[in-house]
Amino acid sequence: MKELLFLLLLLLAMEASHGGWCDLGCDCQGDLKFTICSRALFTRLPTSVPPITELLDLSYNQITIIPEHSFNRVRKLRVLLLHNNNISVVEDGAFSPLEFLQRLDLSWNRITILQEGFSLGLGLLRELQVAHNHLNTLDSRSFFHLDGLQRLNLTGNDIHAIHIRSFVSMSTLRQLHLAENRLTSLNNGIFSMLRSLEVLNLEGNQISHTESGVFKPLTSLALLSLAHNQLSTVYFKTFLSIHTYSTHILLEGNPWHCDCDLQRVFHKLRSIQRLFLDDYYNLSCKTPPVLENYRLMDVDTELCLAETVTVLVITFTVVITVLAAMVMAERTRKKKKRESTGRSRETCRMSQTTTD
Question: 156-189: per-residue pLDDT in tens?
């Protein structure tokens, strides 16, 4: 009986202790150093999070703003989950106390801009998720302090422009996801410091033009996805500039203009041993209309046929013309020779007649 009473008192004490250090709606698992406040209907950040917390889950709430120095009391955080809220404002220095933070998830919010102060204090951050927000441009200093970042996910925003120095501090970045944005072109210099980048996902944009040296700095690139963009042709030098040992390239879902030039480019690209066009057999023609929806692999041997026939016809015509000219020249020469010989004989005959 005494043991049962002692156990009951212990449980009550633990419950009282739990309620004293943890906001209503949160589950503070002290032994694991987790604080779970997901789906708690919070409209602002909780105030009573245990200072020993290393994982704080605030996902699926209704938080709208992350004020400056919001996390002064939980400086040991390593994982902070803020996805699926209504966050539209992240004040400068909001995460600056979190010098040990390694993963930050801000996906599925309403963020339109990230100022330089956003990344203050996040020098040890390894993974940043800002997918499915409302970003429209990447400022040159948005990620200025993210020296140790390895994975950046910006999928599903409205990004249409990338400043040439947007990733200047990210020499350790290994994955960059820019899928499902509104990029229309890729200019030289935007990836200039990403020497460690292994995965570059640009799928589902509106890219129709790439400058020839844009991928040259990516000396560790293993996967490049340009699938489902607006590319109608590609230039051999654009991919030849990639000097990694093995790079897999995805190009499916673009409106290819199937002509002899395109056939030649792909023929040369497929001959480079370090480049792998993984979805080449799924590429299909958009233009010319007569080839629409045909797979490139089914017509690539015929794309230069008309050009070859034209060249042969022209060559044949030139040869015939040259031969005809040579024949005519030879005939003219012989005619002149005969005429000259005839004149010589006539002169001799007349000379003999005079002498007689």
Answer: 999 999 998 899 889 999 999 999 999 999 999 9
> In this predicted model, what pLDDT tens digit does every residue of 51-86 receive, in sequence order?
999 999 999 999 999 999 899 999 999 999 999 999
Q: Which single residue is written with the structure tokens 């409205």?
A: 158
Give 220's Cβ-side CA count (13 Å radius).
Answer: 15
Counting DSSP H helices and E strands in the chain, the numbers are 5, 20
Q: What CA–CA distance (Å, rounded) separates 171 from 216?
A: 15
- Could you give the CA distance from residue 305 to residue 318 in angstroms, rounded to a whole number? 20
pTM listed for this prediction? 0.82
List the one residue out of 127, 116, 190 whose CA is nearest residue 154. 127
Cα 297–chain centre separation? 25
Q: From CA 251, how far away is CA 230, in angstroms rounded?
A: 10
- Close Cβ partners of 307 (under 8 Å, ≥ 6 residues apart): 260
In angstroms, the CA 116 to CA 139 distance is 8
Distance CA 275, CA 237 (A): 13
Q: Answer whether 195's CB lies under 8 Å from 221's CB.
A: no
Which residue from 66, 65, 54, 74 is spatially nearest to 93, judged by alpha carbons? 66
